[in-house]
Design goal:
This protein is of the alpha/beta class and 280 residues long. The chain is built from eleven helices and eleven strands.
């Protein structure tokens, strides 16, 4: 059975999926046609229901629960992993809670933008751009403030940019929960047995990566935009953890809280069906 699969070229995703797409594990008869895209492109593909399996932002998932179900394996949740708001100069966070500053964001439906809306509801002057372009846009003064994700957490200081707030830390202080950033979902059109098989195979792929962390090094490096090996594995260590193997009770609690909070504030629509893959 061949399935379409979309994930980002970021080290955490290539680390997780390496064993699966290169058949280093038993894929139980599954084969994959892979699409590598930035997270907002993946979000948009999910809105159109294009892929059988895809990575997407939790914010975006709220809009496609009718099309996709969340797998237990493969998610990016954690503490100290949230998006950062940065600028060329230091400034108090309260200064930004208005539409006067242009903020570069990595996509309307990213969890990063959702968190920005929680922390600064009046900061509405936003410009969408590819996440990897935000730092340079700041340096070129095309935007006043940037909302960064992924490996940019490790590079912005080298360019003389300043952190205003860690929005993951903001969430943690508000909720005492891990921040759900992105998850892996399966198309509901697939048979339930296929959804279960995908989840099993993905879990095996994550476990293989944990057991053999350098096995996919060349594959990870080939997609890592000239990142050093040190930065690649810092990125992996930040986003791949026990929640990536299995959401568990605490992971599901954090996701439910994220959605409950977003619904209460009118950020996402009402969700009328279960979001998690049912057990066998």
């Amino acid at each position: 059975m061949k399935l379409t699969l979309g994930f980002s070229p970021c080290p955490n995703d290539t680390f997780i999926f390496d064993a699966l797409i290169h058949h280093k594990i038993d894929t139980e008869g599954l084969d994959f046609e892979v699409f590598y895209d930035d997270v907002e492109t993946l979000n948009q593909k999910a809105f159109r229901g294009e892929l059988d399996i895809t990575k997407l932002s939790y914010h975006a998932f709220a809009y496609v629960v009718d099309k996709y179900v969340l797998l237990d394996a493969g998610s990016a949740l954690g503490f100290g992993v949230g998006p950062l708001l940065i600028s060329k100069r230091e400034m108090p966070i309260a200064e930004l809670d208005n539409p006067n500053y242009k903020i570069g964001i990595p996509g309307k439906y990213t969890t990063a933008n959702f968190l920005l809306g929680l922390a600064l509801p009046n900061a509405t002057n936003k410009q969408e751009m590819v996440f990897s372009e935000i730092e340079d846009a700041l340096l070129d003064e095309k935007i006043d403030v940037g909302l960064i994700i992924h490996e940019n957490r490790f590079t912005y200081q080298n360019k003389g940019l300043k952190k205003i707030i860690d929005l993951g830390d903001y969430w943690e202080k508000q909720t005492s929960c891990a921040i759900p950033l992105g998850g892996i979902v399966a198309n509901r059109k697939l048979p339930f047995e296929a959804q279960q098989k995908i989840n099993r195979v993905l879990k095996k792929s994550v476990q293989f990566a944990f057991d053999h962390p350098k096995s996919g090094l060349e594959f990870i490096r080939s997609h890592a935009q000239e990142m050093s090996e040190e930065v690649m594995y810092k990125h992996i260590d930040l986003y791949v953890n026990q929640y990536s193997l299995d959401l568990g009770i605490e992971g599901r609690k954090a996701i439910n809280l994220l959605f409950d909070t977003a619904r209460e504030k009118g950020i996402i629509p009402e969700i009328k069906q279960g979001i998690f893959l049912s057990p066998c």
